[in-house]
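Hey L., structure's done. Input below.
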Amino acid sequence: MNRTISFGDLLTSTFEEISASRSIVLVFLAIAVPIDTAAGLFEGSGDFSLFGVPISLTAPFGDLGGGLVGALVALGSFVVGVLITYWFYAALLARQPAPGFGRFWAFVLVYVLSILGIVLATLALVIPGIIVAVRWVPLIPVLLARDEPAMDSFGTSWQMTSGSSWPIFGVAVVLIAIGLIVSVLLDLASAATGGPGSIGAVFFDAAGEDVMVVLFTAFAVATFRGLADEGEEVAAVFE
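Output:
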């Protein structure tokens, strides 16, 4: 019989995951926010303002060279983003900053397929997309913690969340609401540092996105811990 978890316990556990791994969260933000800020600065023309002074990152390279530099920065940011996302999931799950990367390629496969599955289900009808997203919340922790075939993680996650769909959905709604509040606060900070097109705006946009990553990664890990068999080991994340 599957374990279940209540709304209150899951919400509390989500923030306990962040609190218990504060150093890991800070390392993630210290890496992810500058990378996403750099990628944002090179989007489009690469022009922005700093305290009202217009600056162009691509002008010294010319039109063609600027486009190439922007593409390289975007590619580098994407690769580093995938690596740091894997590390953050694994480190949060293991509660120590040096997890193994033995499941990295399985992570890439499952991560891409899960996004495609949720998008396709949402395009078909909104409700199925929400159901799939809820049932796959602990998908990545399941993949990383258990030494089983990657594709089996989908079924395991689906079965694990049976009986707890409404609490999971409720916590997701709360986290989205928190994200919206954070976004509004960061927009106010952005306006104070130059408004749209400024380096402050790009930085705070990146910070807001990465805070959401922290919240939902902790949410996924908390869901896994709450629904996994008691005493289940997570040794696979060290391999």
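Residues 48-55, 58-66 have pLDDT under 50 and may be disordered. The chain has one domain: 7-238.

-- N.
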